[in-house]
Amino acid sequence: MILVDPMLATGGSAKSAIAVMRQEGIHEQNIIFCCMVASPEGIDNVMKSYPLVRILVGEVDRGLNDKKYIIPGLGDFGDRFYGTH
Q1: Which residues pair with residue 54 across a beta bridge?
Q2: Which of 43, 85, 82, 80 is closest to 60 using CA atoms?
């Protein structure tokens, strides 16, 4: 099963989505999480809870800033996608 999100920042959304998939009976080792950009913190957070999930990412950036945004990152994806910023 492929789970797609544009960014993996803190890992909170990814972990919630994986939890739903697990509740539906999908085995952890059968989940591939795909994203364009990720932070090391987000990857670590997901891997601590779900070590068998595979993460496929286009770029691992430096980390998170004080607002928990990926730096340098792409800015807030929701703001960019919906034109709210």
Answers
A1: 32
A2: 43
How much is the average pLDDT of 2-27? 97
User: What pLDDT score was predicted for residue 81?
Assistant: 65
Range of the domain at 67: 2-82
Q: 30-61 pLDDT, tens per residue?
A: 999 999 999 999 999 999 999 999 999 999 99
Helix or strand run (H / E) with residue 64 = strand 63-64
d(CA 57, CA 19): 20
- Total domains in the chain come to 1
Residue type, 42: G
CATH of the domain at 27: 3.40.50.2020
